[in-house]
Amino acid sequence: MTSPAEYAQLRAQLDTLTTEAFRPELAEIDRLSTLEIARTMNGEDATVPAAVADRLPEIAAAIDATAERMARGGRLVYAGAGTAGRLGVLDASECPPTFNTDPSEVVGLIAGGPTAMVAAVEGAEDSKELAAADLDALGLTADDTVVGVSASGRTPYAVGAVEHARAACGALTVGLSCNAGSALAAAADHGIEVVVGPELLTGSTRLKAGTAQKLVLNMLSTITMIRLGKTYGNLMVDVRASNEKLRARSRRIVALATGAGAPEIEAALAATDGKVKNAILVVLAGVDGPTAARLLDGSRGHLRAALHTALHTPPSQSG
Q1: Would you state the pLDDT for residue 160?
Q2: pTM for this model (two decimals)
Q3: What whole-number distance in Å separates Cα of residue 292 and Cα of residue 268?
Q4: Residue 319: what pLDDT?
Q5: Crossing angle for the helix pair 262-271 and 244-258, nearest 10 degrees?
Q6: DSSP per residue over 293-305, as a string?
Q7: pLDDT in tens, 93-120
Q8: Catalytic residue numbers?
Q9: What residues contact residue 233 under an 8 Å CB cut-off, 6+ apart?
Q10: DSSP-assigned letters across all residues of 146-206
């Protein structure tokens, strides 16, 4: 049970946070027309990309460090509570269909577990110990990256995750928050503080802060995957064709990458068990399916490198 003194301390802490600041000029927003409120809200949202842009050097440094570890077999783990946790789970869950990663490669942890995705779990965000236990269950290693996500930058679950990851095994840590001088950024190897300012609704950090976090998480996962060779140009060549739409997209990607016609594309996909990246190599390098697989294994999945090897190696050696 939290004491009155502890509540007073927490309130004083919240009073110092930009994301919790009260904006007197919006005190009568409920008296505006719906269109006026929408215009005001849209104007607020338009400021978020600029706040993210201010932190691009820190974001890029975190991505390079993450990609280096993932290339050695490490994992990307997001840890947060509430909206921040949900955004991490969302980003992680979209990596397998987009980049054909194993579900264990990019993981989203939310305080309170899966139930917290749709309902608040009382007290879960206040526990550093819970974060440590969740990370221990993953068998964390020094090659893993743990990204603590918290709008306030003080959420115990997120801060605890970063602190435990560094102390327990020397994992790389990133702290993403929306307040300057946050405990989360201070605890991490790479602190990223995207200061978006006070919210339209006082303290509702699912708004601008949530949008900023989504933009940064998009960058972290997408650019890391680009660095790992999961794309060819801006094509998702590691897409997992798990439904009809994605099967159609697979064929379109092969066509865009090669300029080949439908019969050649179908033959290439048949020769490579439907693997888009392999099929592109079959078409562009004129090799068979097994050779394409060997070339890609040799280039650690980087299609450009595999293609260069195929086109500059005598047939007797490449095939």
Answers
A1: 97
A2: 0.90
A3: 10
A4: 43
A5: 110
A6: HHHHHHTTT-HHH
A7: 999 989 999 999 999 999 999 988 988 7
A8: 94, 125
A9: 257
A10: EEEE-SSS--HHHHHHHHHHHHHH--EEEEEESSTT-HHHHHSSEEEE----S-SSTT-TT
